Amino acid sequence: MQHTGALSPPATPVAGVFRARPIYAPAPLLVFLLVFFVGPLLLVLGESLHLSQLRPSFSEYARIFTDIYYLRVIFDTLALGALVTVICAIVGYPLAYAIARSTGTRKSLLIFAIVIPLLVNVVVRSFGWMVLLSGKGAINWTLTLLGLPPLNLMYNWGGVLIALVHVLLPFMVLSLASTLETLDPKLEEAAAVLGATRARIFRRVILPLSYEGLFTGSILVFTLCVGSFVTVMLLGSTSTMVLPLLIYQQLNVASDWPFAAAMGMTLLAIVMVMVWLQSRARRRRWRP
């Protein structure tokens, strides 16, 4: 009797191997992570604990958290990251909204204007800000022409803050724009028809629906800011000390490798805790 049912294609040997042993697929990625990510972290952790002496010691960590100077550096690093994140969110939101609501050539030009700084090396951008913010730079030259007193924007927190906002702003704008593009403009029109003002529409409709992009951009900006080194080194001074710059000094000036490793692990732990707190706040925000 002739079989009229659909015949399934014979299983190939390759497909059978991958169905039987799916661990083969992610194996190269796992090896890469173990060798180039987990391995170096373990080496740094071992150096900070003096494991080469076969007697683990937490003396380097105790040195960090019992010295007021190092605690101040940690506080300044976190405060700088938080302030840069807030400024990027305030400045980046209108830019992201303009990108999300634009079309055609205008939208392409806005995206190009936001992305093009990322194509320039961070060292070049920092040197550019040094030219603009120096005592005889373009900003103070313009103020002098206007009869205004010059500003001291170099080798202090002000110059570092301006440069870091410029460097990290695209990450916030792109994160917000990708979320705002998914919002239906009819929601704003419906709120306007019901009598809501523009401020109320933003506060009650647009902002709550864009929290996902805001949280993503905040995580990116904060983590990149607290790990910034080149910009702070070029535009700051000894009074603008942050953890990455202090780690560099301990490695290249003091040659204190265990202490530098301990500070590196401390910075990693702080970033992980902050990312966890931000992700927890995001989940709580969306909890019914």
Compact description:
The chain has 288 residues and is mostly helical. The protein has helices spanning 13-20, 27-48, 59-66, 68-101, 104-115, 122-133, 138-145, 157-180, 185-193, 198-209, 211-226, 230-235, 243-252, 257-286.
Sequence-ordered SSE layout with sheet pairings:
Elements: H1 13-20, H2 27-48, H3 59-66, H4 68-101, H5 104-115, H6 122-133, H7 138-145, H8 157-180, H9 185-193, H10 198-209, H11 211-226, H12 230-235, H13 243-252, H14 257-286
Question: What keywords describe this structure?
Answer:
288 residues; mainly alpha; MetI-like fold; 2 domains; 14 helices
Subunit arrangement of the protein: single chain
CATH architecture of the largest domain: Orthogonal Bundle
Give the distance, in angstroms, between the N- and C-terminal Cα atoms.
60 Å
Instruction: Give me the CATH superfamily of the largest domain.
Output: MetI-like
Unreliable segments of 5+ consecutive residues: none
User: Order of helices and strands, N to C?
Assistant: HHHHHHHHHHHHHH
Mean pLDDT: 84
Number of strand segments: 0
Count the domains: 2
**CATH C-level class of the largest domain:** Mainly Alpha
Folded structure, characterized:
By secondary structure, this protein is an all-alpha fold. About 75% of the residues lie in helices and about 0% in strands. It has 2 domains: about 35 residues; about 220 residues, Orthogonal Bundle (MetI-like fold). Helix 4 crosses helix 8, helix 9 packs antiparallel against helix 10 and helix 11 packs antiparallel against helix 14. It is globular. It starts with 12 loop residues before the first helix and ends with a helix. The mean pLDDT is about 85.
